[in-house]
Amino acid sequence: MGESRLSFFGVSGEDEKVYRHVLRRPRSTLPELCHTLDLEPAEALPRLRRLRSLGLVRLAAGGRIAPAHPETAVARLSRADSTGGDPDRNSDRFARGARELLASLRAEAAAGEPGAAAERPGVELVNDAAEIRDRVVDWAFQACEEVLSLTPWHAMPAAHLAFIRPIALRCLRRGLRCRVVVPAACLEHPPTADYLAELARHGARIRLVADATERLLMADHRIALLPARGDDLDHGALVVTEPGILAGLTGLFERAWAVAAPYPGPAGLADTERRVLVAMCSGSLDETGARTVGVSVRTYRRRVAELMRLLGAGNRAQAALLARDRGWI
């Protein structure tokens, strides 16, 4: 791919030099960057703005320029490029290029200033709200298997819903398993109830508890975020990667999950629809199910299709699993 590996994703060689410099020296400030790369501020600032628009750098506390982790950078560039209309984007060449780029960026970070590439501590305190949000975006990009969420709020703030909704839906569309535990009172708050219903339609597994005191986000059982103070991550977050602590946090979530009640089906589900659902989940033939419910086979199949759409299921087996998990039957 040549010297400018990021050109594979449409990033100029000049901008790549800035990103790679910040990878090597993640504590850099604008004056330090200009001095090292022999740039004038008027040259450096447009490059930083372009990198920031791509999600590759951000301005952290103290004027420090913080780089996105290599994994996050490649994920963001791949996602940004996926709508470019280039048929080569799904090719083996593209996948190979992305892997080569990731290896190159990891090597760049590892070759940085002493201590810059050292592993983060097992428990890290992050106070900057923008950095905390970036961390949430990071783990959402990097998660491969399952996302867990435990929330104590009876009503999710509008700002939180606006931030977390696209992230949660993106995880679900990528095929990740998502399990969510919330207080039952959330269903009395229309914006929160609408959000939960949308997650459920896209395949999230949701359960309800009478009350909760902990706030927890976890990805793949290998990284967790919990509040440093109170129950709001924006006021300070602990980023946990220590395996022993993660095991304890996983146990905390699983205990809450085990005692929580299933997420209810829609209030408007009529008795006929419930009987169709039971018949469908029994695995009986459509003709048998239609006779049991007392409708024609055509009507039965139409209502099965409507229920599958309501559940967000791709087939009947998945619909049966989702219906049982949500307590619809």
From TrEMBL:
Transmembrane segments: none annotated. GO terms for molecular function: DNA binding. Gene3D superfamilies: Winged helix-like DNA-binding domain superfamily/Winged helix DNA-binding domain (1.10.10.10). InterPro entries: Sig_transdc_resp-reg_C-effctor, TrmB-like, Tscrpt_reg_LuxR_C, WH-like_DNA-bd_sf, WH_DNA-bd_sf. Residues 266-323 form the HTH luxR-type domain. Residues 72-93 are annotated as: Disordered. GO terms for biological process: regulation of DNA-templated transcription. This is Helix-turn-helix transcriptional regulator.
